[in-house]
Write a structure and sequence with these properties.
- It is built from two helices and 22 strands.
- The protein is 4% helix and 35% strand.
- The strands form six sheets. It has a six-stranded antiparallel beta sheet with strand order 11-21-20-19-16-15, with no helix packed on it. Strands 3-9-8-5-6 form a five-stranded mixed beta sheet, with no helix packed on it.
- By secondary structure, the chain is mainly beta.
- A hairpin with a 2-residue loop joins strand 17 and strand 18.
């Protein structure tokens, strides 16, 4: 069970180093980030009989993208995976190194009585099309655990324009304020997808449910287009109704209270969001249109793509904010914002 001793600091502490993708950032105080290195990579055992399995175990520091081939793909910096090769196979762990030189380490799992397997060319299956999984009703199936490491949201167009007199709805924070995503209160989309924890979708013919590991909230969305309440009472996560437009699920939500934030802005109870989910090979494309006539001149949209977690997970983990406190009084006013 994951626990947040000091919730305002929790998101900074729990996210493991090296999970973020992309180029290495500078260290604290502007110091260069330490170079990546492969600490360990081993097979347990390294020799097996046909039909038996081996466990590949690795530990990598400061990676900016890590893969294990053949057949595994992207992996986390510290993990393990069980493999059952049909023939003797060499596995290679690789990541970008200094300059243009990749950093790699290989090991061989020997399968008694077999010859080394031939690794297929990446182009061998390039022309094969992957079928999108579907439910019994024939609709795209979004079920699975998704990674928080998918690309960040991008505003379509120029982003929101505040109505005259609504400038106070823009959230302004001092350098030590970690924001609304670290106080363990409910988060609405798209903020709900912006924290460093996985989320899970479970779906049947009538409902789609989204479970967020942090802060332990869920949404149950009817797929018949019917809202639970005709005039919903304001609530933290609102009242959603989903319906299909071809293979795209459209979720309209109203009935939000005014206690949450949305992409750096406060809002009123007039907030309305429309989410569009379109299933693709390794996840789904996502767009959300945000509308609050009391705050914004016109609706505005954000887009992103979510991918399944690697390695695959059966479920999200439990997260409980059992001691939701502000950490700043413990350190006084001497914290350098650049080094927090």
């Amino acid at each position: 069970m994951r626990k947040a001793a000091f919730a305002t600091l929790g998101l900074l502490l729990v996210c493991p180093a090296g999970l973020a993708e992309g180029p290495q950032r500078g260290g604290r105080g502007g110091r260069p980030a330490p170079p990546p290195r492969i600490v360990t990579f081993e097979a347990r055992p390294a020799s097996i009989e046909p039909g038996e399995s081996a466990l590949l175990v690795w530990h990598v520091e400061n990676p900016s993208g890590l893969t294990l081939e053949p057949g595994i793909g992207a992996v986390i910096p510290r993990g393990s995976v069980e493999v059952t090769p049909a023939a003797t196979t060499t596995y290679t762990l690789s990541l970008p190194g200094a300059g243009d030189t990749p950093l790699t380490r290989s090991l061989t799992v020997t399968v008694t009585g077999t010859t080394p397997a031939t690794v297929a060319s990446p182009t061998d299956d390039a022309e094969e099309e992957t079928e999108i999984p579907r439910t019994r009703a024939g609709q795209p199936d979004f079920s699975g655990v998704y990674s928080f490491r998918s690309g960040r949201g991008v505003a379509a167009g120029d982003g929101p324009t505040l109505r005259p007199g609504a400038e106070g709805y823009r959230v302004e924070r001092d350098p030590l304020d970690t924001g609304a995503t670290s106080d363990c209160m409910p988060l609405i989309p798209p903020n709900a997808f912006g924290v460093p924890y996985q989320f899970q979708i479970m779906q049947n013919d009538h409902y789609l449910a989204i479970f967020h590991e942090y802060p332990g909230t869920f949404r149950i969305i009817p797929l018949d287009g019917q809202r639970v309440q005709v005039e919903p009472d304001p609530s933290w996560l609102g009242d959603p109704a989903g319906q299909w437009e071809g293979d795209t699920l459209v979720v309209e939500t109203i009935g939000y209270n005014d206690k949450t934030e949305i992409s750096g802005y406060r809002h009123t109870e007039a907030l309305r969001t429309v989410e569009r989910l379109t299933r693709v090979e390794n996840g789904f494309e996502y767009a959300i249109t945000i509308e609050d006539p009391n705050v914004f001149v016109e609706p505005w949209t954000q887009q992103r793509t979510f991918q399944f977690n690697v390695p695959p997970m059966k479920r999200v983990m439990e997260f409980v904010c059992e001691n939701n406190r502000d950490y700043r009084p413990l350190f006084g006013s001497t914290i350098d914002p650049a080094n927090r």
